[in-house]
Write the structure tokens for this entry.
Amino acid sequence: MNFIALKMLIGDRAKYIGILTGLTFASLLITQQLGIFTGIMARAYGAISDASLPDIWVMDSKVQYIDDIKPLKDTQVLRVRGVKGVEWAVPLYRGLLRVRMEDGNFQTCSVMGLDDATLIGGPSEMVQGKLSDLRQSDSVIVDIVASQKKLAKPPLTPDGERIPLKLGDTLELNDHRAVVAGFFRGSKVFMAFPVIYTTYSRTKIFAPQERKSLSFILVKAKPGQDIAALCDRIQRQTGLGAHTKDQFKMITIQYFLKNTGIPVNFGIAVTLGFVVGVIIAGQTFYNFTVENLRYFGTLKAMGATNGKLLRMIILQALVVGSIGYGLGVGAASSIGYLARNTELAFKLPWQILVISGTAIVIICLISALLSIHKVMKLEPAIVFKG
């Protein structure tokens, strides 16, 4: 019976391809849109991911996400260091400063100031130079992608290409001289500003003078310490907000989910993919079943039960669903891979594959239910009608 079901399915090439097209398009749209949404959310906390050593991020208790900077006094670092269970705590500056280009234009950059002694919180992947080169006079390290695009020097000819920065080049950072001492490759961030690292003390020179300049305090817990308990202890003793890396990531994501239209826009696209899949696949599968009612009637006349016919229809739906799902996911993954070096945000964790697979199963079940109702009411005598 299974062989007959598959032969019936593949025998009608036009409708077989039509059903596959609908399911492939639905799987592609759902997977791609969820992948882009996840990629955008991952960029929102890219700076948190790049700082791999700290266990806890300490900040003003009113901070809502990573770019919601509410400066603290430098003395807060000493208070956090005095909390029981803290192995070390270092300052981190994060802010937006302007870089003046050689052609007179300005480029806003995200500047990160690392603790002068330890340089904790810096990027994990250096392309050129060493992180310790930040200790040189007026030195900064620059995102390798930005050095080739947004921070590149103007072309020598009107129609020429921009000239990438190289080691030893200078930048004018908020009217102060900065020397490029290295290049790094970091996570792409939601706010597409070039990222520049320097030391914490140097940011006080580069940045406009303010009474408070400390953005975050990065904390490492002593071995064996309960991280959640240490966060509570820091909050009680200092009055500041203290969150683990994962908690701070979720706080950032929740801010964007609640206060932007991003989830609504992508939710509409995913829903559209699901609806289109139901309409195309369901209608085509229903028409396929109607046109093959005489064959189902023949099988009933030969003694096939409703249960066997039901299994045949479900098998047909699952086969086209599996193939359509695979083609759609494969196409979405290929698009994400080909666009890996572009500004497209795309991330494909296994949870998305489960969600899109579940959606395709539901579409197939809806399509099968539309057909099953017709077959269950079928009278075997239909085969004898002209």
About this structure: DSSP finds twelve helices and ten strands in the chain. The beta strands are 56-59, 86-100, 106-114, 126-128, 139-143, 170-173, 176-184, 195-199, 216-221, 241-244. The chain has two domains: 2-43+261-384, 73-239. The two ends are 26 Å apart (CA to CA).
